[in-house]
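To: structure desk
From: M.T.
Subject: fold request, one chain
Message: Could you run this one when you get a chance? Sequence is below, nothing fancy, just the single chain.
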Amino acid sequence: MLDWFKDLSKMERKGFYGAFLGHAVDVFDFMIYSFLISTLLAQWGMSKSTAGAIVTWTLVSSLVGAIGAGILADRYGRVRVLRWTIVVFALACFLCGLANSPEQLMLFRMLQGLGFGGESSLCMVLVTEMIRNPAHRGKYSGFAASSYSFGWGAAAIAYAVTFSLFPAETAWRVCFFLGILPALVVIYLRRNLEEPEIFVKSQAERAAHGAPSAWQQLARLGRRPLLGKTILCSLLSGGMLGAYYAIATWLPTFLKTERGLSVFGTSSYLAMTIFGSLVGYVAGAYATDRWGRRTTYVAFAAGAFVMALVYMVIPVSNTSMLFLGFPLGVLMQGVFAGIGATISESYPNDIRATGYGVSYNVGRVIGSLFPLSVGWLSTGRTSLPLAIAIVAGVGYALVMGAALLLPETSGIDLGQAGGGDSEHEPPAEPVRAMLAPTVGKPA
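Reply: Done. Structure tokens follow.
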């Protein structure tokens, strides 16, 4: 099963390791807040709506960071810009531990979102461009994305350990402070990483024809043939991220307040879900290359919606919930495995980072409304479990709809990605044939 990994070059492996750990740190710094919501609700007396709004504004700022990082990465390189994004979000996570009010925490989390948006997007662009064999692109990017489970798991462990060592009013600050340590390791790992060959070639072409302005880069995403792909990729990522945020952001609070679990008990239940999410990423990574991107999205999204209903709404014992967390994690995270490949395969070389940053992080902004919606629905309108299930269901419906409308890109040559939209190159032959006049041709 891992023969494809053994065939990777030294630089492909180095790119994988750097992206894997960088994404894991990124996720740790973002997800640690979800474990601290119940504590901060008690410490500061803030409402659930405010707690959800902090997540929302963090994700809104991630769009700004991703667009800026994408434009810079298309001009100056993926690796160079990635070094700065991790510095920004790790430092901001540390500052969150110094916050003394919900307003201060929201400000620091928005600063964190600037680096978070750029890091997570450019990581996936880097790995999809780094791999030489398109038949393994789904597995390569899917395994890199599985670092999400490790970052989420590290956040759960940090939560359990710090709250067992420190009083609650100190422990939540320590959790934020911890985010800066592994970032130093990532910076070390990326010190000699080279740019992908496909980017180097694209940069040479840009230099020969003159680099477009930042506005020109963004404007290309707003016209055909990229506009439709940007909208659909945004809805695809928005649906899966929104459903995930709705579940993951409120799951610790659900387990603690609705099921009456302790800090240790909450961590145990989350551990089962997180372990399932790791298996889901691996399963999704292989499925996206074997079944194709579209079928994988539909199958995993439908399964995740069913499991969310079972887990949140149907009355089951705590013991049953412990084991149900595994398939929930498999399906909830397995749907993400192909997203890096799909979005990268939808854009030409010279605008890939910008396109990825826009579409994935517009999806983040869409998804940011989901935890806020859960907080709003569960404040006197319905129960928290039912609110989570309803909002997650909307997200998975978006995933299935967008997946069915997007073209299948499995195995495509990145040099021909984006429908031949490059400003300096004619359309690839298959695309030119589709655009050719059909008058006089047999049906």
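Reply (cont.): The chain has one domain: 9-194+213-413. Let me know if you need anything else for the meeting.
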